[in-house]
Amino acid sequence: MSSPRPARSGSGTWGPLRLLLRLLVMGIGLGLISGTALKLLAPRLAQGSINAPRLTGSPAGQPLQALQRGIPLGRFEPHRELTGLSRKWAALAAVHKDLKASGYLLVLDDGRFAQLQSELPLPAASSIKTPILLAALEDLDAGRVRWDQPLTMTKEVVGAGAGWMANKPVGTRFPFHEAATEMIRVSDNTATNLLIKRLGGKTALNARFQALGLPGTVINNWLPDLEGTNTTSAHDLARTIALVDTGEKLSPRARDLFRQVMGTSRTNTLLPLGLLQGLGGDSADPDADLMPYGVTVLNKTGDIGIAYADGGLIELPNGQRAVAAFMVKGPFNDPRSTDLIRAMAAEAAKLLVPRGAAAAQPATASAPPSATTRSTEPR
Prior knowledge:
single chain; 13% strand; 379 residues; alpha+beta
């Protein structure tokens, strides 16, 4: 039988000392790790990127808002009238005594503006779909609707004219996002009526338009409203888009959805083409040919034959943004109405886009638009 392993020499003396040294080394290591972690986290705590307790400073106990960073969003606040442009618009409209014309432009960054009977209510046609989209996304923001919520088509909401949804059987269900998008993309009237009904009906929406500061915007009938009883104004259309783009209404995500949906609009033969013509161009695809100038337009038109409208956001080559809207009422399918809108937009482009940018002509010019291309959107 083997003998027990002999004890190491000196183990009785060094054992406690080794334990003490190990504890000392571990303590120093933990201290270094903790100090390093706190040093790295301190800037993030200061910036509020970690869930630290919020300070409250207002009497109502509301959380303090962080200071805005980056490029300012601008405001819908007119400060200095571009009187030369306003006079140009008035002169263009005065040539056609039997047309009622309205226009409004505001540069959101500095408050420069031009106007021509801008608060005159005129038949809205499909341009009223822009404030309806704002109301729809407000409800999405508030959790009153879901983006994928199904909407059931009833006989009441079927709208003739523009769009494809009316061709589906009564009882067909469309997700909320599809109705909102098709309302703008192809100006679908049935999609618009679906949203009007889901948002509480005409009376409820009219009250909301008033609360948004859109006094001339009123829905009296389902779309397509060929009689022109639904109204809005150039000022209201411009304000609608500005309320979204300046961040006054809608969360950042809902604002992104608004811009995304507006960007799907197919009709660009009024405001975008007019801007391009003001820069010396003419094109069957104005949106593409505006890009070399540094100009982007997100717009929505309206056309019921007796009235035409277009309102949109204009992104300028110097980084500024403007909202503009034009409306004309006249004889049925009179080409002077659409020509007048383009002419007013052209005068705005001459003033807003620097000559250097205007000189940067596209490398390949598109063919001039045909009369068919210029005929604006279907009803």
